[in-house]
Protein backbone atom coordinates (compact mmCIF):
# COMPACT_ATOMS: atom_id res chain seq x y z
CA UNK A 1 0.00 0.00 0.00
CA UNK A 2 2.83 2.40 0.83
CA UNK A 3 4.54 1.66 -2.50
CA UNK A 4 1.31 2.24 -4.41
CA UNK A 5 0.66 5.53 -2.64
CA UNK A 6 4.18 6.70 -3.46
CA UNK A 7 3.73 5.78 -7.10
CA UNK A 8 0.40 7.64 -7.26
CA UNK A 9 1.97 10.67 -5.61
CA UNK A 10 4.79 10.67 -8.14
CA UNK A 11 2.41 10.29 -11.07
CA UNK A 12 0.09 13.10 -9.97
CA UNK A 13 2.18 16.12 -8.94
CA UNK A 14 0.48 19.25 -7.74
CA UNK A 15 -0.46 22.03 -10.14
CA UNK A 16 2.08 24.35 -8.50
CA UNK A 17 4.88 21.81 -8.98
CA UNK A 18 3.88 21.36 -12.64
CA UNK A 19 3.95 25.14 -13.16
CA UNK A 20 7.35 25.49 -11.50
CA UNK A 21 8.78 22.72 -13.68
CA UNK A 22 7.32 24.31 -16.81
CA UNK A 23 8.79 27.70 -15.93
CA UNK A 24 12.14 26.10 -15.16
CA UNK A 25 12.17 24.43 -18.56
CA UNK A 26 11.08 27.61 -20.35
CA UNK A 27 13.87 30.04 -19.53
CA UNK A 28 12.23 32.86 -21.49
CA UNK A 29 9.04 32.58 -19.43
CA UNK A 30 11.08 32.44 -16.22
CA UNK A 31 13.01 35.57 -17.12
CA UNK A 32 9.74 37.25 -18.12
CA UNK A 33 8.17 36.40 -14.77
CA UNK A 34 11.19 37.76 -12.88
CA UNK A 35 11.07 40.92 -14.99
CA UNK A 36 7.34 41.39 -14.34
CA UNK A 37 7.62 40.88 -10.60
CA UNK A 38 10.72 43.07 -10.37
CA UNK A 39 9.11 45.86 -12.38
CA UNK A 40 5.96 45.76 -10.27
CA UNK A 41 7.88 45.82 -7.00
CA UNK A 42 10.07 48.66 -8.22
CA UNK A 43 7.38 50.95 -9.63
CA UNK A 44 4.83 50.38 -6.87
CA UNK A 45 7.48 50.74 -4.19
CA UNK A 46 9.21 53.77 -5.72
CA UNK A 47 5.92 55.56 -6.43
CA UNK A 48 5.18 55.54 -2.69
CA UNK A 49 8.07 57.90 -2.04
CA UNK A 50 7.64 60.09 -5.13
CA UNK A 51 5.63 63.30 -4.98
CA UNK A 52 3.30 63.13 -7.98
CA UNK A 53 2.24 66.78 -7.67
CA UNK A 54 5.85 67.89 -7.87
CA UNK A 55 6.60 65.59 -10.80
CA UNK A 56 3.68 66.82 -12.92
CA UNK A 57 4.12 70.51 -12.01
CA UNK A 58 5.27 72.73 -14.89
CA UNK A 59 8.77 74.23 -14.72
CA UNK A 60 9.32 76.79 -17.49
CA UNK A 61 13.05 76.96 -16.73
CA UNK A 62 13.64 73.23 -17.41
CA UNK A 63 11.82 72.70 -20.70
CA UNK A 64 13.19 69.94 -22.97
CA UNK A 65 16.35 69.32 -20.98
CA UNK A 66 18.42 66.37 -22.11
CA UNK A 67 19.18 63.49 -19.70
CA UNK A 68 21.53 64.60 -16.92
CA UNK A 69 22.40 63.87 -13.30
CA UNK A 70 19.41 65.92 -12.17
CA UNK A 71 16.96 64.47 -14.69
CA UNK A 72 17.84 60.87 -15.56
CA UNK A 73 15.56 60.83 -18.61
CA UNK A 74 15.42 64.58 -19.20
CA UNK A 75 12.25 66.67 -19.19
CA UNK A 76 9.25 67.16 -21.49
CA UNK A 77 7.80 70.33 -23.05
CA UNK A 78 6.51 71.40 -19.64
CA UNK A 79 9.80 70.91 -17.82
CA UNK A 80 8.47 67.83 -16.03
CA UNK A 81 10.74 64.98 -15.01
CA UNK A 82 10.26 62.16 -17.54
CA UNK A 83 11.75 59.49 -15.26
CA UNK A 84 9.27 60.31 -12.49
CA UNK A 85 6.43 60.26 -14.99
CA UNK A 86 7.67 56.89 -16.28
CA UNK A 87 7.59 55.38 -12.78
CA UNK A 88 4.12 56.69 -11.93
CA UNK A 89 2.85 56.03 -15.45
CA UNK A 90 3.99 52.41 -15.30
CA UNK A 91 2.26 52.03 -11.93
CA UNK A 92 -0.97 53.48 -13.31
CA UNK A 93 -0.89 51.37 -16.47
CA UNK A 94 -0.19 48.18 -14.52
CA UNK A 95 -2.85 49.00 -11.92
CA UNK A 96 -5.46 49.62 -14.62
CA UNK A 97 -4.51 46.47 -16.52
CA UNK A 98 -4.73 44.35 -13.37
CA UNK A 99 -8.03 45.86 -12.20
CA UNK A 100 -9.67 45.60 -15.62
CA UNK A 101 -8.55 41.97 -15.85
CA UNK A 102 -9.93 41.18 -12.39
CA UNK A 103 -13.23 43.04 -12.84
CA UNK A 104 -13.99 41.79 -16.34
CA UNK A 105 -12.72 38.30 -15.48
CA UNK A 106 -14.83 37.97 -12.33
CA UNK A 107 -18.03 39.06 -14.08
CA UNK A 108 -17.29 37.06 -17.23
CA UNK A 109 -16.51 33.89 -15.27
CA UNK A 110 -19.73 34.05 -13.23
CA UNK A 111 -21.79 34.98 -16.29
CA UNK A 112 -20.32 32.21 -18.42
CA UNK A 113 -20.48 29.41 -15.86
CA UNK A 114 -24.09 30.22 -14.95
CA UNK A 115 -25.11 30.33 -18.61
CA UNK A 116 -23.34 27.09 -19.47
CA UNK A 117 -24.39 25.17 -16.37
CA UNK A 118 -28.12 25.89 -16.52
CA UNK A 119 -28.40 25.82 -20.32
CA UNK A 120 -31.81 25.87 -21.99
CA UNK A 121 -33.77 29.10 -22.02
CA UNK A 122 -31.44 30.73 -19.47
CA UNK A 123 -28.46 30.04 -21.72
CA UNK A 124 -30.27 31.35 -24.79
CA UNK A 125 -31.28 34.60 -23.09
CA UNK A 126 -27.83 35.19 -21.60
CA UNK A 127 -26.10 34.46 -24.90
CA UNK A 128 -28.35 36.91 -26.77
CA UNK A 129 -27.41 39.58 -24.23
CA UNK A 130 -23.74 38.69 -24.72
CA UNK A 131 -24.13 38.86 -28.51
CA UNK A 132 -25.64 42.34 -28.17
CA UNK A 133 -22.64 43.59 -26.19
CA UNK A 134 -20.28 41.77 -28.55
CA UNK A 135 -21.43 43.67 -31.65
CA UNK A 136 -21.06 47.06 -29.98
CA UNK A 137 -17.98 49.10 -30.96
CA UNK A 138 -16.69 48.91 -27.40
CA UNK A 139 -13.61 51.06 -28.08
CA UNK A 140 -15.76 53.93 -29.33
CA UNK A 141 -18.14 53.50 -26.38
CA UNK A 142 -15.24 53.66 -23.93
CA UNK A 143 -14.04 56.85 -25.61
CA UNK A 144 -17.55 58.35 -25.29
CA UNK A 145 -17.78 57.41 -21.62
CA UNK A 146 -14.34 58.85 -20.90
CA UNK A 147 -15.27 62.05 -22.75
CA UNK A 148 -18.56 62.64 -20.89
CA UNK A 149 -17.38 61.71 -17.38
CA UNK A 150 -16.25 65.01 -15.81
CA UNK A 151 -13.50 63.50 -13.65
CA UNK A 152 -12.27 59.98 -13.13
CA UNK A 153 -9.51 58.11 -11.38
CA UNK A 154 -7.81 54.75 -11.81
CA UNK A 155 -10.76 52.84 -10.33
CA UNK A 156 -13.52 54.50 -12.36
CA UNK A 157 -11.46 54.29 -15.56
CA UNK A 158 -10.93 50.57 -14.92
CA UNK A 159 -14.66 50.02 -14.33
CA UNK A 160 -15.51 51.77 -17.62
CA UNK A 161 -13.05 49.55 -19.51
CA UNK A 162 -14.13 46.37 -17.73
CA UNK A 163 -17.82 46.99 -18.47
CA UNK A 164 -17.17 46.32 -22.17
CA UNK A 165 -14.40 43.70 -22.08
CA UNK A 166 -15.92 40.68 -20.30
CA UNK A 167 -17.60 38.99 -23.28
CA UNK A 168 -14.66 36.90 -24.51
CA UNK A 169 -13.95 35.17 -21.21
CA UNK A 170 -17.70 34.68 -20.59
CA UNK A 171 -18.08 32.82 -23.89
CA UNK A 172 -14.99 30.69 -23.19
CA UNK A 173 -16.08 29.73 -19.67
CA UNK A 174 -19.61 29.00 -20.88
CA UNK A 175 -18.33 26.50 -23.45
CA UNK A 176 -16.24 24.76 -20.77
CA UNK A 177 -19.15 24.72 -18.30
CA UNK A 178 -21.34 23.03 -20.92
CA UNK A 179 -18.82 20.17 -20.99
CA UNK A 180 -18.26 19.98 -17.24
CA UNK A 181 -21.95 19.75 -16.29
CA UNK A 182 -22.29 16.53 -18.34
CA UNK A 183 -19.46 14.74 -16.53
CA UNK A 184 -20.12 12.05 -13.95
CA UNK A 185 -19.19 14.09 -10.88
CA UNK A 186 -21.71 16.83 -11.69
CA UNK A 187 -24.47 14.35 -12.53
CA UNK A 188 -23.80 12.38 -9.35
CA UNK A 189 -23.99 15.54 -7.25
CA UNK A 190 -27.34 16.41 -8.82
CA UNK A 191 -28.62 12.92 -8.08
CA UNK A 192 -27.58 13.27 -4.44
CA UNK A 193 -29.56 16.52 -4.20
CA UNK A 194 -26.63 18.95 -4.02
CA UNK A 195 -27.72 22.51 -4.77
CA UNK A 196 -26.78 24.07 -8.08
CA UNK A 197 -24.77 26.83 -6.41
CA UNK A 198 -22.63 24.31 -4.54
CA UNK A 199 -22.03 22.32 -7.70
CA UNK A 200 -21.05 25.48 -9.62
CA UNK A 201 -18.73 27.01 -7.02
CA UNK A 202 -17.41 23.88 -5.27
CA UNK A 203 -17.01 21.52 -8.23
CA UNK A 204 -17.30 23.10 -11.69
CA UNK A 205 -15.25 26.24 -11.09
CA UNK A 206 -12.35 24.45 -9.32
CA UNK A 207 -12.08 22.08 -12.28
CA UNK A 208 -11.64 24.93 -14.76
CA UNK A 209 -9.28 27.00 -12.61
CA UNK A 210 -6.32 26.38 -14.90
CA UNK A 211 -8.26 27.70 -17.90
CA UNK A 212 -9.31 30.77 -15.93
CA UNK A 213 -5.76 31.57 -14.82
CA UNK A 214 -4.34 31.20 -18.33
CA UNK A 215 -7.08 33.29 -19.93
CA UNK A 216 -6.86 36.11 -17.41
CA UNK A 217 -3.06 36.21 -17.67
CA UNK A 218 -3.23 36.61 -21.45
CA UNK A 219 -6.01 39.21 -21.08
CA UNK A 220 -3.72 41.26 -18.83
CA UNK A 221 -1.39 42.00 -21.75
CA UNK A 222 -4.26 43.14 -23.98
CA UNK A 223 -5.70 45.35 -21.23
CA UNK A 224 -2.36 47.07 -20.69
CA UNK A 225 -2.15 47.66 -24.44
CA UNK A 226 -5.73 48.94 -24.55
CA UNK A 227 -5.11 51.50 -21.81
CA UNK A 228 -1.88 52.64 -23.46
CA UNK A 229 -3.67 52.97 -26.80
CA UNK A 230 -6.48 55.06 -25.32
CA UNK A 231 -4.00 57.33 -23.55
CA UNK A 232 -1.96 57.65 -26.75
CA UNK A 233 -5.11 58.81 -28.59
CA UNK A 234 -5.83 61.34 -25.84
CA UNK A 235 -8.78 59.50 -24.28
CA UNK A 236 -6.96 58.20 -21.24
CA UNK A 237 -5.80 60.08 -18.20
CA UNK A 238 -5.08 63.81 -18.30
CA UNK A 239 -1.46 64.94 -18.26
CA UNK A 240 -1.47 65.45 -14.48
CA UNK A 241 -1.97 61.66 -14.16
CA UNK A 242 0.85 60.06 -16.15
CA UNK A 243 0.62 56.71 -17.91
CA UNK A 244 2.78 54.91 -20.44
CA UNK A 245 0.35 55.92 -23.17
CA UNK A 246 0.58 59.64 -22.37
CA UNK A 247 4.38 59.51 -22.50
CA UNK A 248 4.21 57.67 -25.82
CA UNK A 249 1.76 60.26 -27.18
CA UNK A 250 4.48 62.93 -27.02
CA UNK A 251 5.98 61.23 -30.09
CA UNK A 252 3.16 62.69 -32.19
CA UNK A 253 5.18 65.88 -32.20
CA UNK A 254 7.69 65.55 -35.09
CA UNK A 255 10.38 67.46 -33.18
CA UNK A 256 9.99 65.20 -30.15
CA UNK A 257 9.89 62.08 -32.33
CA UNK A 258 13.15 62.94 -34.08
CA UNK A 259 15.26 64.88 -31.60
CA UNK A 260 13.93 64.15 -28.07
CA UNK A 261 14.03 60.36 -27.88
CA UNK A 262 14.33 60.35 -24.08
CA UNK A 263 10.68 61.40 -23.71
CA UNK A 264 8.94 58.55 -25.55
CA UNK A 265 11.36 55.70 -26.29
CA UNK A 266 11.61 54.42 -22.65
CA UNK A 267 7.82 54.22 -22.43
CA UNK A 268 7.58 52.47 -25.81
CA UNK A 269 10.23 49.91 -24.82
CA UNK A 270 8.58 49.31 -21.45
CA UNK A 271 5.15 48.74 -23.03
CA UNK A 272 6.69 46.23 -25.44
CA UNK A 273 8.60 44.39 -22.68
CA UNK A 274 5.59 44.25 -20.35
CA UNK A 275 3.25 42.87 -23.00
CA UNK A 276 5.80 40.31 -24.22
CA UNK A 277 6.58 39.23 -20.65
CA UNK A 278 2.91 38.72 -19.80
CA UNK A 279 2.45 36.77 -23.02
CA UNK A 280 5.45 34.52 -22.30
CA UNK A 281 4.21 33.76 -18.79
CA UNK A 282 0.70 33.13 -20.12
CA UNK A 283 2.02 30.68 -22.71
CA UNK A 284 3.91 28.81 -19.99
CA UNK A 285 0.73 28.63 -17.90
CA UNK A 286 -1.20 27.36 -20.92
CA UNK A 287 1.33 24.60 -21.53
CA UNK A 288 1.34 23.66 -17.85
CA UNK A 289 -2.45 23.27 -17.98
CA UNK A 290 -2.24 20.97 -21.02
CA UNK A 291 -0.29 17.76 -20.47
CA UNK A 292 0.15 17.24 -24.23
CA UNK A 293 2.01 20.54 -24.68
CA UNK A 294 4.32 20.48 -21.67
CA UNK A 295 8.02 20.61 -22.33
CA UNK A 296 10.28 17.77 -21.31
From TrEMBL:
Q: Which CDD domains match?
A: TM_PBP2
Q: Name one GO cellular component term.
A: plasma membrane
> Which GO biological process categories is it annotated with?
transmembrane transport
Name the PROSITE patterns on file.
Answer: ABC_TM1
Q: Which Pfam families does the entry mention? A: BPD_transp_1 (PF00528)
Membrane-crossing residue ranges in chain numbering? 28-50, 94-118, 130-149, 155-173, 204-226, 261-278
Q: Which UniProt keywords apply?
A: Cell membrane, Membrane, Transmembrane, Transmembrane helix, Transport
Which coarse location class describes where this protein primarily resides? Answer: membrane
Q: Which InterPro entries match?
A: BP-dependent_transpt_permease, MetI-like, MetI-like_sf
Q: Enumerate the subcellular locations listed in this protein's record, separating them with semicolons.
A: Cell membrane
Task: Work out whether the entry's keyword set contains Transmembrane.
Answer: yes
Where is each ABC transmembrane type-1 domain found? 90-282
The record's similarity note reads:
Belongs to the binding-protein-dependent transport system permease family.
Q: What is this protein called?
A: Oligopeptide ABC transporter permease
Amino acid sequence: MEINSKVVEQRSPSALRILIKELYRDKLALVSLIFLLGTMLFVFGTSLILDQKEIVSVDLFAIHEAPSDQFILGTDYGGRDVFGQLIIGTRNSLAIGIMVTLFSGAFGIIYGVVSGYFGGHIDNIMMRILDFFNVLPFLMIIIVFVAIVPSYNTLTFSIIMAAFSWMGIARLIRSKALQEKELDYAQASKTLGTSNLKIIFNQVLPNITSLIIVTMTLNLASNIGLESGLSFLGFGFPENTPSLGTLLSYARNPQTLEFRWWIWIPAAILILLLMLSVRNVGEALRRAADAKQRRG
